[in-house]
Design a protein that fits this description.
- The chain is mainly α.
- The protein folds into 2 domains: about 70 residues, no CATH class; about 400 residues, no CATH class.
- The chain has a 3-stranded mixed beta sheet, with no helix packed on it. Strands 2-5 form a two-stranded antiparallel sheet.
- Strand 6 and strand 7 form a beta hairpin.
- Keywords: Cell membrane, Membrane, Transmembrane, Transmembrane helix.
Length: about 500
């Protein structure tokens, strides 16, 4: 006979114990003792005293049957758990904050290295080969490519960062990259769907959890069927993104450094390339012979070295080809980038401890006072945006909301503005990737990143601000949850 982790017992189990006691024609009693109490108990049976019996050393959440007439429930004493001192707690918080900042710094360095690696891989005409590829030239297939990339990586942010780096390296134009970006917004519900399976034992909870898991993709499907055709006809995202970039960038070009000022010492130690030659080679490969190297080296192709060489990076004395160096830097940078994303999420969760669900429930139960009551949803949306900026992953944030909806802590309607804010916050990771690019590639990178931000803002305006269309993604998710619940039940019965 088991009890829940909170120390409470199941009434059905108590009824079962009652029947057993009646069958033995003895009286029985239930004793609940704290964990630190003396491990002995005396019970009475049919009015007579029984000798003291030692209580076995077991889990605090176990029910003990003593001679079929005693039931003992050991209740954990929460006051006995050690409470860290304020100094230790502050030290742990400071350590987690430092770990988050360090992971974020390495993450930004990886973005710049990915851009340099794509520049090397895009030399010798590879940029033209990608630009004329039917998978990219056809907008429909480009959407599928972006969706598959997100399904494989399960991180729209990683897909976007790679896409921005390819635009910065002249491997893709902004016009060709927009359909891939729209497709990358889809396909991030796999992790959420796996989380919802944990509620498969309860049909009601499973239906709610699966509806929550697919809410983000249903919103993106609605945006796809409306914004994507409009973009193909008018190019509104590309035009508006260029207009915003022109407002931020002077006509003379960019002459300042952004995050590059912080990341240059690390990036220059890993790899240094000739950016000007790379830009020319990606468009005019016939200008350079097959032995030309774009990596700033201290050795020549014939093996001779440069004395007093000014270059001091990992590959300055290597004889590897540019293509091999590009693949090494690309694979290692993407691996470290994913590790940094996981580390950021881990340390943020440690920093927040177990207060997230309580704070979310407390926040969602409040409303803006007085005439500002209609702005409650937009305030919640802002919270989702800020949390996603901290986590650097809207898929992680959405998957953390799925169990809350499944257990009934948060409703689907309350989750919806959080998802909207999470989508907008996730798109700003592309802006971060653009800020990590060097000054010569900053404008194109920012243009691509702003297109994704505008895509999510336009989607929010159409499917949240307008009350009539606000219910469409929610209805689609609820209906999909009902269908999946029925299919899952039938599958379980058949198996």
């Amino acid at each position: 006979m088991k009890v829940a982790d909170n120390g409470s017992w199941n009434e059905n189990d108590i009824d079962e114990g009652t029947k057993r006691a009646k069958q033995s024609r003895t009286a029985w009693s239930v004793a609940a003792i704290p964990a630190e109490a003396d491990h002995s108990i005396t019970q009475t049976a049919s009015g007579s005293n029984s000798p003291e019996m030692p209580l076995p050393q077991k889990s605090p959440s176990t029910v003990y049957l003593l001679s079929d007439y005693s039931v003992v429930v050991r209740i954990p004493d929460k006051s006995s758990s050690p409470v860290p001192s304020p100094g230790i707690y502050r030290l742990k918080c400071a350590t987690y904050i430092f770990a988050v900042c360090l992971s974020l710094f390495i993450y930004i360095c990886c973005l710049s290295n990915i851009s340099s690696a794509f520049s090397l891989l895009g030399s010798k005409g590879l940029a033209k080969a990608i630009q004329v590829s039917p998978l990219i030239n056809d907008p429909i297939s480009a959407v599928v490519v972006g969706m598959l990339a997100t399904v494989i990586l399960q991180s729209p942010q990683t897909t976007t960062n790679v896409l921005v780096s390819m635009v910065a390296a002249n491997m893709l134009t902004v016009h060709d990259a927009i359909p891939v970006m729209i497709g990358s917004e889809l396909g991030s519900s796999l992790v959420n769907g796996l989380v919802s399976i944990a509620y498969s034992s309860d049909p009601t909870q499973f239906e709610r959890a699966f509806a929550a898991a697919t809410l983000g993709d249903n919103f993106n499907i609605c945006c796809l069927f409306i914004i994507f055709p409009v973009e193909l006809i008018t190019g509104v995202l590309e035009i508006c993104g260029k207009w915003i970039v022109d407002l931020l960038v002077s006509e003379q070009g960019i002459k300042f450094k952004t995050l590059e000022l912080l990341t240059d010492p690390v990036n220059n130690f890993i790899l240094q390339v000739n950016d000007e030659e790379l830009r020319n080679a990606s468009l005019y490969p016939e200008m350079f012979d097959e032995h030309h190297t774009f990596v700033l080296r201290c050795v020549f192709y014939n093996g001779s070295r440069i004395y007093n060489c000014p270059y001091n990076h990992i590959f300055s004395y290597t004889h590897m080809t540019d293509r091999a160096i590009g693949w090494i830097v690309l694979i290692s940078s993407i691996t470290v980038l994913i590790f940094c994303l996981i580390s950021i999420v881990y340390f943020i969760q440690k920093l927040l401890d177990e207060r997230v669900s309580k704070n979310v429930r407390k926040l969602l139960s409040k409303e803006c006072p007085g005439a500002w009551k209609p702005c409650t949803g937009y305030t919640v949306m802002l919270v989702g945006l800020l949390v996603t900026l901290l986590l650097q992953s809207n898929s992680i944030f959405n998957s953390s909301l799925t169990p809350m909806v499944g257990s009934g802590v948060v409703t689907l309607e309350e989750m919806y503005p959080l998802v909207m804010g999470s989508n907008i916050g996730g798109s700003f990771s592309g802006v971060l990737a653009a800020l990590s690019a060097d000054s010569s590639r900053f404008e194109k990178s920012l243009h691509m990143a702003m297109c994704q931000v505008l895509y999510n803002i336009f989607g929010t305006l159409m499917f949240y601000v307008v009350p009539a269309t606000r219910q469409l993604p929610i209805y689609m998710s609820k209906r999909l949850g009902q269908i999946e619940n029925e299919v899952f039940i039938h599958y379980t019965i058949v198996c």
